[in-house]
Write a structure and sequence with these properties.
single chain; 78% helix; mainly alpha
């Protein structure tokens, strides 16, 4: 009977450990999603500012976008070419910062 209790305790401990890892990964994922959203927002701002519109034109454009009266024709997709290693390095740095903070907090 004692051996059964040890097994149950071991499984419960493993479940708890796994749940903690899942929670950490969910927090990390949320951070990555937030970073992605920020990059998308920065790209939109850069694109709008690159149009060099007057204040009135910018106001009219943004109002038109919001009310749906302005549409865009996209002829060629623009994607900033970043070397894959730069993106990988940034992600690795985020992971290092995130996991380093969590290990200090535990």
């Amino acid at each position: 009977m004692k051996q059964l209790n040890k097994r149950i305790k071991r499984y419960l401990a493993e479940i708890e450990k796994t749940e903690k890892k899942i929670a950490e990964l969910q927090r990390y994922l949320k951070g990555v999603q937030t970073a992605l959203k920020q990059e998308e927002n920065n790209e939109m701002i850069k694109s709008i500012r690159g149009m060099k519109l007057s204040s009135k034109e910018l106001f009219d454009l943004l109002n038109g976008i919001q009310d749906g009266s302005v549409s865009f024709k996209v002829e060629e997709a623009y994607e900033e070419e970043l070397p894959e290693e730069d993106i990988s390095e940034e992600i690795a740095e985020r992971e290092e910062n995130y996991y380093g903070e969590n290990q200090r907090n535990e």
